Amino acid sequence: MSIGDFIGDWHALFVLLVAGFLPNEVWRVLGLWIGGGLDEDSEILVWVRATATAVIAGVIMQILIIPPGALANVPVTIRFGAMAVGFVAYLVARRSVAVGVVCGEIFVLAGMYLVK
Question: In the 3-class helix/strand/coil scheme, how is the chain assigned residue by residue?
Answer without folding.
Answer: CCHHHHHCCHHHHHHHHHHHHHHHHHHHHHHHHHHCCCCCCCHHHHHHHHHHHHHHHHHHHHHHHCCCHHHHHCCHHHHHHHHHHHHHHHHHCCCCHHHHHHHHHHHHHHHHHHHC
